[in-house]
Amino acid sequence: MANNNVWDLVPLPEGVKPIGCKCIFKTKRDSKDNVEKYKTRLIAKAFTQMEDIDYKKTFSLVSSKDSFRIIMTLVAHSDLELHQMDIKIVFLNGDTDETIYMVQPENFVSGDPKKMVCKLKKSIYGLKQVSCQWYHKFHQVIISFGFEINAVDECMYHKFSSSKYIFLVMYVDDIMLACNDIGLLHETKRFLLEKFEKKDLRDAYFVLGIHIHRDRSRGILGLSQKIYIEKVLMRFDMKDCRLGDIPIAKRHKFSLSQYPKNEFEKKEMQKILYASAVGSLMYAQICMHSDIACIVGMLGRYLSNLGADHWKAAKRVLQNL
Prior knowledge:
By secondary structure, this protein is of the alpha+beta class. Helix content is 29%, strand content 25%.
């Protein structure tokens, strides 16, 4: 926090109530699900923020999975360079527009904690507006380098220079670069490294939980969600389940008449994490598995009143993944 000049220590103004903060601990894993590092992060307690006083705009854009798949198609078709960068402490790059006072972090107190508070100069994790402010900061920086925003996806940018071109896709702190010229690619990366603290991961191989398999000599590019799917199966105790053949059979019909018929059945269904299962299937469908879109849409109709048949169908789709 000190290195990034996140706040100034100032006396608490009269009549102002500072927001709270706390430390959280996180384990970051790599593409093989191995522990990469342990992280500690100071976050603001957003539930103590007051609208129109501590924040105004909160909406932030993220790149669509359609853009990701389109870029992958272009990379495979035109044999583009595909690199990945990870922005460190991403949300500390955003500048706060509001005047926000925060209590001093526990065990890092300076002076009288009842009188001295942190006046935020930058956004920190946990603030309601933090992702919105980061997006606007990145947008201003990348536009200044000659990139243009995509007309459909506002988290996708492009730059053309004669016969050279480069595409940039941003998903919060993950940056993906696809380029037909290695010189332009390195020029763009140097610019970003000057503006933000980043980790250059070079060739992209693991993005948004999706593993990228590439054989440039054969012109092959493949995508896999194996690790994500294995985690989902473990969550629902289906790691060793038999592989399914199809997500839904023609004979399978769903209706409200399949809802629980008595209190015992209702209580049994309430124990099942059906909504979580459907949500997990939906993410897999949006990323790669468009073949399950129909059945996932059907299962989503019974989130508030599911029966045993609906849960069996959801498990069948999980088996099919």
